[in-house]
Each structure stands twice: as structure tokens, then as C-alpha cells.
Write a sequence for this structure.
């Protein structure tokens, strides 16, 4: 059998190629395309296997023998991405290959044809990160209604506007009790990166829903993709929140009073139809009331690390690339401690990274976790904080020296 | 060689598990499974097996069962599953995908009638409905044939000259639930026969490639042509595999078209699975009475080796094809293949007999009557639906 040095047990493989290379044929202003570039950034050069069902994400990377994907990718049949990802992920596990298996699927493959497969993979708690890039339409076939299309939107199959409201897929996934589910916005970069870091430090099924404006389907300006993403959050249409184990809800950004009309007016899919703005406003209000009630017992509402008082933090300084994240996280989870937020910040020296973990633990447990992390050979320094946790300065240099050899114990402050 | 009294399903489950276990020295094995009568015992056997390096995933549908096998196989593990009837049809999209990805997944089918209306009994229409997938198809007549063919199927499917999935069929209930005494190879023998799987195109973390992306028309035609070349390599590959099987196990499983008494036969019956066993008794009874009757068992259906069939038929001028399947508006599926193999041979009278649909019994007397019917014919007629009198 051929030897493959990069496949060795436990070896973390890093890559130099971007995940989503130039030359792809995604439309101007494609939310999915931007999302793939952000996904790449969130993975910090770590390797992954991508599983993509038949959708725009398999139609736009180019035709044989070219591919814009800079990572191994499997284009599955439409309804099969979570099943194929299950097979890939199980074999990675059998061979002690730590890099994640990530499904990247549209709303058709998630809300509709793939729902049974998705539900079953979530119920089995497969070790898969599932990202739904939701453009609220069958985009690849030219814009037909899906279960994700909001009420009032015109599509080729709802020429007078869709009558039924959008399916609440987050509620469905939360009902499965998956370890982590979160919504993502292309206008909230830090929140996106933090949630991808939490996803990478969590084992089991992780569901991420990315609102992905589609200029062709939404009849919007390509330049408005990020602005539409911002407005969707600001007017309350697309709440930013996360759900831990299907029980603990945390709201990450609240509507700021931006009128719904500001969001609707930039999309011609809502023009020329009998759109009931008051009904839409009432539906948003009801959705928020439900969400606020679910999130009432979670102590924090803010996405930033620094103002989250009452929490316990570990600031970990690691050498080299942040692909040690999974090993650091394993030290936390093996002690039965939940990671509730993660911020990864690469230092300007390009040789060190700060990983800040928000954990749900008492002081002695946090101490045990810190000592476990300190034993990892890539770790230079572990600093626990309670309550206020200062952000590392953007230009901050590492405070501790890199250990000359693994036998020298790192500092635990 | 350990002997065991087992059902067809137990035998099939044991061989799939042994093949998976044999890959513990490489990237392990992984199977997605879903129950359906009459194969359920196979998937139960797999879920209960204590694999050293393997995973059996109990999914929510046959479509996903094959989906898991695809993901596992593309990641380099040995993958296999089982299905039947409507489950097989539900799986079909991913069976085609597995073939086009060139993944050597082994799929055991306990043949069952497609519904509705629901009928759990044997009919080969389910596996034959997948005849246009890029997949080998073997049909087995006995438990021993099933055991040996599953191991042969892994070897042929995984051969770098082939790299296609393989379907191994047995008759539902007639074999799947019947107890028979078999030589059941132990793990060390299976280890000796099945080398570790080294799928040349598996996903490698250091080598980004896409599988199942877009292709333009001309590349698609070339890809299909490559698959045809792989199919054409099967007879040669299979000969080598059967030689090695004989070395390891001391017996030689049947090839594509095992024949009996065809050297000097005037009339030959073509049949598959357990019907071929009954037909053999008919042939031997008639031989005892001095009639020159022979039998060809259609074991390898994909690829369909037309020349090998013509050789196996020998000098016979009359051929009765027994089809336990029905392609509405055409006739029996094996018959179509036999007629195509004998294209231009106006001297051979080929008659299609559609028998045993929905598990209808095909006893000695029916096959006997078919031989009489064919002997009396002056020219072939349309496919005949044949059943026992009364």
C-alpha cells in the first residue's frame, strides 16, 4: 500500500491554496462566494474535506479538469450531502485524521430535498459542520421557490409572491439538540469568525445558517450584498443567534429599529406584489418574542469578548498556526466543560496566535483545564481571566518567549 | 475450512463483515445500512459485528445508506451495504453516482418484487432495474455460490483495471431465509484473499481534487467510454481472481456462464439464481431419458459477456430463457440479452418464458412443460407468461 506521509495518524495538515480560488464563475455579488472566502479565513489554513450537493457551489468552481476548490471536495447527489459527509467523517475518525468534514449546501438541499438526510445526520450527532448558504431560492435552476423563500417574494414559481412564510430551519435543528447551531451574516465578520471557531472546537453535529443574498434571484444590486445582509439583521428579519445543545439560546445582535422597508426596497423580488408589510412586521415581532423568551436565561447578549462579565476565560498563546485549536478544544471537552465562545487572533509576527476560550466552569475545573492545555507542546502560555477579558491588541507582541523545547513547562498564570 | 449451517442472509452478512474486517490493516471499513425485507438480517449482522477498524451507520433511508458508502469509499475505506425491491429503487440515484465515482462498493441484494401492491417474495426485477448503472451484477444459485461470489466481487470491483461497484444477488426467502450447510471462510482466509484496499483516487488531504464536479459533453462521453473499457476488463480480471480463489480456498467458483450438458445439446435452458438449480434437475432427468437438453446459468449479468454466452450455449438450436422479471412492453430482461448475443443467428430459436413473478413457485413441472413447449415450436413467439397448471 502506498505510503502517504501527509495522512499519518493525528497529523494536522495545513494548506497554502485558498479554499475558493480565483477563476470560479460565481455571479458578481454572490453571497455564497463571499461566504466561502470567509469560511477559508475562519479555518486559518487548516485542511478540511468539503461535501457539496448539486447546487451553485458545485456549478461555479468550473468544469473538469479545473476546479476552484483548493481543498478536497466531493460533489454529492442533491439530497445526500450529510450522508456522504457521514461516510467521510467516520473514515477520518477511524484513521485519526483530525481535519473537519464540512457540508456546504444551499437552502434547496437543506430545507427541502435534503431535510430527511440532514435530520438523520443531526440525530446521529455525526461529527460534521453543516453550513447552509441560504439564498431563499433554487438559484442554480433559475430562481424557483423553496421552503426558505420568505412570504411575499416573487420567484419563477410564485409569480405573484409566495403565500407561505419561510420554514424555521434553526428551530428544527435546535429541536434535534445538536451541540451547536448558529446563524451567520456577511455583514458581521467578527461574529462569523467567532462562530466558526466555536464550531471548530465543538464535536458532533454543528449547523450554521448563512443568509446569502443572491443578486440574480433577489433582483438586487451586486454591490448591495453586504448591505442587504446588514439590513436583514438590523430590521430583525434575520436574527443573529446561537443555540448550544438545543437548549441555551444566545442572541448576538438585536434589531436597531431600522424599518423593514429599507431591506425590502433594495430587492425587486418584493416589488409589484401585494406584500403585506404589517403582517411581515407582526411575524418578525412574534419571532423575536419567542427568541427573547428562549434566550432569557442566557447571561450574555453581546458578541464581544470584553464585556461578557461573569464568565471564565482562558487566553492561550500558541506557536505557529492556529490548527492546534482542535487539540486545545479537546483538552476542554475531555473534562466535560462546554466552550461557549472562541476568538482566534493571529499575531502580527505570523508565528503566534491567541486563542481566547469562554468556558462554563468553576475555578478549580478551569485550573485543571488550563494545566491540561499547558501540556500541549505548541502552547506557550495559558492565562485565566474571570469576568472582564481584555482583547489582545491588534499589534500586540507575544508576552512569553517561545519555549526552546517541549520539556520546558509553559507558563500558567 | 469451517462448515456452518446458516441462512443466505447470515452467510452474506458474515462475508461482508469479513471483507470489511480484512481492511483493518488499511483505512478500515464503513457501511451505511437500512432495513428492508428480505435482507434485514444482513444489516443486523453488520451492526452486531465487532469491527477492529470499522463503522456501521444506521441511516434513515437506502438513499443515505449508499450515500454513507460513497463518502466512506471515497475516503479510502472498504464499503458495502445490502438492499432489495423498493429500497433498491430508492437507492438508485446514489448507485449510479457510486459507479460514476468509480467506487468499488459491494451491494448485496436479496431479490424481492417491487411494489405497490406489496409483495415480499422473490423477483429479480429489482436488481435488473439497475442494469444501466455502472455496476457489476452477479446472480447466485446457492449459499456457497453467494459466499464465494461476494469475496470474488470485492476482488474484481477493487481491481485497478475495473474500479466499479458490484451487486451480488440472491433470491429473497428461497436463499435469504433458507438454512444451508456451507464452507464459511474464516478471517485468516479472507485476509489472505483480500488485499488491503488502496483506492488510487481516494480523497487525500494533501491533494485537493473535486469528485462529482461539472463535466462538458465530450469529457462525459470519454468518462462513459472509460467505464465501458473497465467492464471489458472484467472477464480477464475475473479469471485471475478465480485462480487465486482456488489457490486460497481449494475450490473454484463458477465463471460468467456455468454450463451443464451443453456440448451436444439440441435445446438449452438459460436461467439464473435458484431457478437454475431446479432447471438442472429437469435437464438431468431428461438426459437420463436420452434427451439432448442442456443448461446455462446466467451468473454474471453485468458486464454481459455475449461471446462467452454463445460459447456456453454450444450447438443448441433451441434456447428457452427463463425470466423471473418483466420489462413491460418488451418482455424478459435476460431474453433481450440472449437475443442480442445471438444476433444474425437465424438458425437458433430463442423463446422467452416469463415465470415466477412475485414469488410464484417455479417447480420442476413448470420447467419440464417449458421444455416441451419449446420443443414443439416452429418459430419464436412473443414472451410467454408461463405458470403451473391449476
Amino acid at each position: 500500500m502506498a505510503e502517504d506521509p501527509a495522512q499519518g495518524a493525528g497529523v494536522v495538515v495545513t494548506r497554502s491554496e485558498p479554499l475558493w480560488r480565483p477563476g470560479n464563475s460565481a455571479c458578481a455579488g454572490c453571497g455564497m462566494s463571499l461566504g466561502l472566502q470567509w469560511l477559508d479565513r475562519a479555518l486559518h489554513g487548516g485542511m478540511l474535506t468539503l461535501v457539496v450537493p448539486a447546487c451553485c457551489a458545485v456549478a461555479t468552481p468550473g468544469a473538469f479538469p479545473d476546479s476552484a476548490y483548493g481543498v478536497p471536495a466531493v460533489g454529492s447527489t442533491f439530497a445526500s450531502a450529510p450522508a456522504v459527509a457521514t461516510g467521510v467523517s467516520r473514515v477520518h475518525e477511524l484513521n485519526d485524521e483530525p481535519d473537519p468534514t464540512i457540508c456546504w449546501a444551499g437552502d434547496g438541499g437543506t430545507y427541502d430535498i435534503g431535510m430527511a438526510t440532514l435530520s438523520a445526520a443531526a440525530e446521529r450527532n455525526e461529527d460534521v459542520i453543516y453550513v447552509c448558504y441560504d439564498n431563499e431560492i433554487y438559484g442554480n435552476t433559475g430562481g424557483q421557490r423553496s421552503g426558505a423563500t420568505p412570504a411575499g417574494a416573487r420567484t419563477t414559481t410564485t409569480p405573484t409572491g409566495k403565500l407561505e412564510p419561510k420554514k424555521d430551519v434553526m428551530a428544527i435543528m435546535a429541536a434535534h439538540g445538536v451541540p451547536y447551531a448558529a446563524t451567520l451574516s456577511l455583514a458581521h465578520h467578527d461574529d462569523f469568525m467567532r462562530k466558526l471557531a466555536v464550531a471548530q472546537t465543538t464535536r458532533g453535529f454543528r449547523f450554521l445558517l448563512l443568509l446569502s443574498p443572491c443578486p440574480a434571484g433577489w433582483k438586487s444590486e451586486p454591490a448591495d450584498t453586504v448591505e442587504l445582509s446588514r439590513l436583514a439583521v438590523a430590521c430583525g428579519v434575520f436574527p443573529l443567534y446561537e443555540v448550544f445543545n438545543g437548549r441555551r439560546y444566545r442572541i448576538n445582535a438585536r434589531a436597531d429599529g431600522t424599518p423593514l422597508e429599507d431591506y425590502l426596497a433594495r430587492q425587486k423580488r418584493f416589488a409589484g406584489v401585494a406584500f403585506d408589510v404589517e403582517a411581515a412586521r407582526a411575524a418578525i415581532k412574534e419571532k423575536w418574542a419567542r427568541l427573547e423568551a428562549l434566550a432569557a436565561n442566557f447571561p450574555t447578549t453581546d458578541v464581544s469578548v470584553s464585556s461578557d462579565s461573569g464568565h471564565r476565560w482562558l487566553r492561550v498563546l500558541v506557536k505557529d498556526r492556529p490548527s492546534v485549536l482542535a487539540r486545545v478544544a479537546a483538552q476542554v471537552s475531555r473534562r466535560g466543560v462546554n466552550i461557549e465562545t472562541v476568538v482566534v487572533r493571529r499575531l502580527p509576527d505570523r508565528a503566534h496566535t491567541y486563542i481566547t476560550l469562554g468556558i462554563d466552569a468553576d475555578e478549580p475545573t478551569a485550573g485543571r483545564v488550563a494545566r491540561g492545555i499547558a501540556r500541549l507542546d505548541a502552547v506557550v502560555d495559558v492565562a485565566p481571566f474571570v469576568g472582564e477579558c481584555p482583547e489582545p491588541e491588534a499589534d500586540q507582541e507575544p508576552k512569553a518567549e517561545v519555549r526552546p523545547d517541549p520539556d520546558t513547562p509553559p507558563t500558567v498564570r | 475450512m469451517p462448515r456452518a449451517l446458516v441462512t443466505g442472509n447470515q452467510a452474506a452478512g458474515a462475508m461482508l463483515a469479513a471483507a470489511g474486517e480484512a481492511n483493518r490493516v488499511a483505512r478500515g471499513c464503513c457501511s451505511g445500512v437500512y432495513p428492508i425485507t428480505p435482507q434485514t438480517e444482513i444489516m443486523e449482522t453488520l451492526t452486531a459485528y465487532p469491527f477492529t477498524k470499522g463503522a456501521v451507520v444506521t441511516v434513515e433511508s437506502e438513499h443515505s445508506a449508499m450515500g454513507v458508502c460513497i463518502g466512506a469509499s471515497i475516503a479510502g475505506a472498504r464499503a458495502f451495504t445490502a438492499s432489495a425491491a423498493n429500497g433498491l429503487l430508492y437507492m438508485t440515484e446514489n448507485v449510479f453516482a457510486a459507479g460514476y465515482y468509480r467506487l468499488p462498493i459491494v451491494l448485496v441484494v436479496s431479490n424481492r418484487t417491487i411494489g405497490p401492491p406489496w409483495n415480499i417474495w422473490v423477483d429479480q426485477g429489482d436488481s435488473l432495474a439497475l442494469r444501466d448503472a455502472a455496476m457489476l451484477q452477479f446472480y447466485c444459485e446457492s449459499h456457497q455460490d453467494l459466499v464465494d461470489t461476494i469475496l470474488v466481487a470485492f476482488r474484481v470491483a477493487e481491481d485497478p483495471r475495473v474500479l466499479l461497484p458490484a451487486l451480488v444477488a440472491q433470491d429473497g426467502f428461497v436463499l435469504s431465509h433458507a438454512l444451508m450447510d456451507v464452507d464459511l471462510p474464516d478471517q485468516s482466509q479472507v485476509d489472505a484473499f483480500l488485499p488491503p484496499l488502496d483506492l488510487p483516487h481516494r480523497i487525500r488531504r494533501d491533494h485537493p481534487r473535486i469528485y462529482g464536479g461539472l463535466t462538458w459533453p465530450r469529457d462525459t462521453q470519454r468518462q462513459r467510454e472509460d467505464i465501458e473499457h473497465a467492464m471489458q476488463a472484467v472477464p480477464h480480471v475475473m479469471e485471475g481472481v478465480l485462480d487465486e480463489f482456488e489457490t486460497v480456498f481449494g475450490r473454484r467458483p463458477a465463471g460468467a456462464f456455468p454450463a451443464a450438458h451443453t456440448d451436444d445439446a439440441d435445446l438449452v435452458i438459460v436461467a439464473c439464481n435458484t431457478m437454475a438449480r431446479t432447471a438442472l434437475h429437469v435437464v438431468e432427468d431428461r438426459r437420463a431419458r436420452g434427451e439432448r437438453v442442456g443448461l446455462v446459468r446466467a451468473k454474471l449479468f453485468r458486464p454481459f459477456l455475449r461471446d462467452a454466452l454463445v460459447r456456453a450455449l454450444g450447438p443448441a438450436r433451441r434456447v428457452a430463457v427463463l425470466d423471473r422479471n418483466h420489462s413491460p412492453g418488451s418482455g424478459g430482461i435476460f431474453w433481450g440479452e440472449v437475443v442480442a448475443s445471438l444476433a444474425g443467428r437465424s438458425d437458433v430459436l430463442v423463446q422467452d418464458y416469463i415465470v415466477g413473478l412475485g414469488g410464484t413457485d417455479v417447480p420442476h413441472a413448470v420447467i419440464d412443460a417449458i421444455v416441451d413447449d419449446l420443443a414443439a415450436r416452429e418459430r419464436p413467439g412473443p414472451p410467454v407468461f408461463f405458470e403451473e397448471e391449476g
User: Anything to note?
Assistant: The CA atoms of residues 71 and 168 of chain A lie 31 Å apart. Chain A touches chain B through 50 residues (CB under 8 Å). Chain A has two domains: 5-295, 312-412. The first strand of chain A starts at residue 49 and ends at 53.
